[in-house]
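Pipeline run #58 for the internal structure catalog. This entry was flagged by the ingest filter as a single-chain record with no existing model, so it goes straight to prediction. Upstream metadata was stripped on purpose; only the residue string is passed forward. Reviewer on rotation: M.T. Logging verbosity set to normal.
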Amino acid sequence: MALSARLELKQGQSLVMTPQLQQAIKLLQLSNLELSSHIAEELERNPLLEVDLGQSERADQSPNSTNDARMDDTGTNANSGNDGEASELNLGNEQLPTRDEGLLDTGFDNIYADQSKADKAQEEQQFQSQNDSSWDNISGGASTATREDQYGGTQALEELNSADLSLKDHVTEQINYTFFNIVDRSIALHLVDMLDEGGYLNGSLENVAQRLNTDISKVEAILKQLHMLEPIGIFARNVSECLALQLDDLNRLDPMMQKFVENIALLGEHKTAELQEICGADDDDMAEMLNEIRQLNPKPGLQYGSTNVQTVIPDVFVRQKKDGSWRIELNSASLPKILVNQNYYADIRKTVNDKVDVEFLTECLANANWLVRSLEQRANTILKVTTEIVKQQDGFLVYGVEYLRPLNLKTVADAVKMHESTVSRVTNNKYMMTERGLIELKYFFNSSVPSANGGEGHASESVKARIQKLIDDELPTKILSDDKLAVILKASGINIARRTVAKYREALNIASSVDRRKQKKLAIK
């Protein structure tokens, strides 16, 4: 068979990622804050896009209006694609634990305008209090807060921002009233710049002396004066020095306590017997010193603000109505409402004759229309996926984390007839405001732990919550080992191995049974 070059025509199909399709995919995975920034950029780039300042009033006048493109009185296409959309999920009167799936009835109605302004204000002010850390657990013990407690509280929006006065501003103000010599003040201000958020001094004093061309003794003398500033404990170079400064201020830094704080690292390693021997203390002395240490603040600088914390804005509001059904509403308050100004396009098009200008104007119109349609599609997709998640996890929303069901992307994707990658993008960096607090959509997706009786599996997060509760309720004289926890869980219908219990316990930052026994023994004394 002879080889020769020839031309052939073949017909085929392929998916081409056009710029418009890439934009739609990008918009789908953006959070509300990121989307607001993107829309602001498009408003600057495209002269045909405008912010609709009066669209909300028209929506209030037409509560039954749809989300299709519409023309206002001036002939302007005023569809933003991100109007307040909502749906209601009716679960009937038969709630969990029976979970009758036949009673589920999902509908998508644009009833955003029916919600009162008071309800909207109440929903937007509910945020979860996620600060569950405590210095009480100095020995490395587990936090006593369960996962359900993490989602049980709410927090005002303004409380999520850091304090207006930063640590460095607070310290600088004290330095101005303490150091009157210009050289001493310069050294002190240089040391202030070396503080971290916790109030600790980063860097060596030798480098400071060399950089400022002064004696190291001079820098050390200034540092000793800085140790007297508020809050007590700042400018420390390690935890031991920070605690020692606070104890000295309380007139409690005796030789035994000095040895205790100098070797406090042994406490974190649960070597209490070795620490007690170094201090030369008996059991009562150890218990007393430990209680005093727990009253101190290991990071005194954190009580002052440093940098503003990025506030998490919920993308969806979910609340239960009196009849047991769920109201699911997109948070459109954080997004600007945009429209395509067809009148402006028509006026400019009459005066433009240059080919390049015509192409630019046509491209702007196409991009503007595509952006509006993409925003509408994004809103509808988020609403559909969120509604299905609420449908699957209504037990968690009503009864708590122990009723969280195993769920994966494929289950939701099959229910809403979308691809798994689409569901993954929808749930990426999205948050849902519920009566249990602000929850990331990714939290609802978790692996399954088999059931001991062959029934429906248990969600990994609910199993972790049970482990947390069992450990919190254990007696100091009866510490539960991982084997014992596995036996108790199997008796309650959860088929789990000991190594899985250990993995979940470590994920919850809970110490082993040996360490917990030492901690609770000290706590009793």
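catalog note: The chain has 23 helices and ten strands.
catalog note: Residues 448-524 form a domain with the Arc Repressor Mutant, subunit A fold (CATH 1.10.10).
status: ready for reviewer M.T.
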